[in-house]
Amino acid sequence: MNEYLVDTNILIYYLAGAFNPRQKQVIDPVLEGSFTISIITRIELLGWKGHTPEGLIQARRLLDCARCLPLTIPLAEKPLNSGHR
Questions:
Q1: Architecture of the domain whose range is 4-83
Q2: Which residues of the chain carry a pLDDT beneath 50?
Q3: Where exactly are the structural domains of the chain?
Q4: So what's the pLDDT on residue 81?
Q5: How many C-beta neighbours within 10 Å does residue 23 have?
Q6: Are 69 and 38 within 8 A, CB to CB?
Q7: Is-contact 45 8, C-beta < 8 A?
Q8: pLDDT reported for residue 19
Q9: Using one digit for the tens of pLDDT, what is the confidence trace for 25-44?
Q10: Which residues pair with 67 in a beta bridge?
């Protein structure tokens, strides 16, 4: 079984119905299965200004299905450490 780390934009496009049928065929199984988001994605999605009241409810339901990675100091510094030796 594959696990996926899903980005904020993917969730916004999904909730907005912005995927074409081929893209939807790829993303539906991911979001219906096991997927992970970062705490940053959770914050960004809940803070997105384009939500309608119903859209925010749908976003919360979608987020409830995701495993959420917390932000830790080592995780936050990992991109910096990987490029600097």
A1: 3-Layer(aba) Sandwich (3.40)
A2: none
A3: 4-83
A4: 60
A5: 13
A6: yes
A7: yes
A8: 97
A9: 999 999 998 899 999 999 99
A10: 36
Reduced 3-state DSSP string for the chain: CCCEECCHHHHHHHHHCCCCHHHHHHHHHHHHCCEEEEHHHHHHHHHCCCCCHHHHHHHHHHHHCCEEECCCHHHHHHHHHHHCC
d(CA 50, CA 58): 13
pLDDT at 10: 97
C-alpha span between 14 and 29 (Å, rounded): 12
- The token pair at 37 is 């988001």
For residue 37, the cross-strand partners are 68
User: The pTM is what?
Assistant: 0.81
